[in-house]
Amino acid sequence: MVMGVAGVLLGLLAGWIIGSQQAPGIRAEPVTAAPSQQAATGSQPQQQAPPALDEKRAAELKAAAESAPTDATARVRLGDLYFDSGRFEDAVKWYKDALAINPRDVNASTDLGIAYYYMNQPDRALEQFDKSLAVEPTHSKTLLNIGIVRAFGKQDLDGAAKAWERVLEVAPGSDEAVRAKQGLDGLKSGHGDAGRGATPKPDGSSN
């Protein structure tokens, strides 16, 4: 039954693991594998042909980071650059460096969690998302991604439903709420018991 629901959700949610940064040119949404491929393998989304790393831009940002040891911005942008090129281990390094300088950057924290997910580390991703929620309990992109990782990385459909219900509660009318609603509809159509009785905690925790 779980695999059947996963097939329904994959058709809805492909490409939904999204970064938190919104400034043009900083982040792009990862491109995921075709839904049929994911449903057949039961695997997490995989990137397809990410763009080559812009070596010149990377060198510029590294120079900026080295010249400003307490500036997190260049480090976040390096993380974004490596992420978009599919070099997740490098992205993790730079996001962690940025968070060491500014641990309250919820966007960088969530992007770090997404990078962990693409490295096939869903538990670590969820731990990082919890850190994001500790900073901003109603961060809708974090909550949306918690649902995705719980659904696909952990096959925890109740947990996914709970996270998406929280998105609807804290960010009604947002793009994230639209996606969360579609995910919940997919769960209901494939497995009517998923999420039944799951009441989000006031603090926004996914647990």
Word description of this protein:
- This protein has 207 residues and is an all-alpha fold.
- It has a single domain (2-190), classed as Alpha Horseshoe (Serine Threonine Protein Phosphatase 5, Tetratricopeptide repeat), CATH 1.25.40.10.
- The protein has ten helices and no strands.
- The protein has helices at 2-13, 35-41, 55-67, 73-84, 88-101, 106-118, 122-135, 140-153, 157-170, 175-190.
- Helix 5 runs antiparallel to helix 6 and helix 6 (106-118) runs parallel beside helix 8.
- The longest helix has 16 residues, at 175-190.
- Mean pLDDT is 78; it is low at 1-5, 21-47 and 195-207.
Q: Topology, please?
A:
Blueprint: H1 2-13, H2 35-41, H3 55-67, H4 73-84, H5 88-101, H6 106-118, H7 122-135, H8 140-153, H9 157-170, H10 175-190
Largest sheet: none
CATH homologous superfamily? Tetratricopeptide repeat domain
Which structural class best describes the helix and strand composition?
mainly alpha
Calculate the terminal CA-CA distance, rounded to whole Å.
23 Å
Question: What oligomeric state best describes the polypeptide chains here?
Answer: single chain
Rounded to an integer in angstroms, the radius of gyration calculated over CA atoms is 17 Å
Order of helices and strands: HHHHHHHHHH
Instruction: Tell me roughly what share of residues is in helical segments.
Output: 55-70%
Average of pLDDT: 78
Shape: elongated
Tally of domains: 1
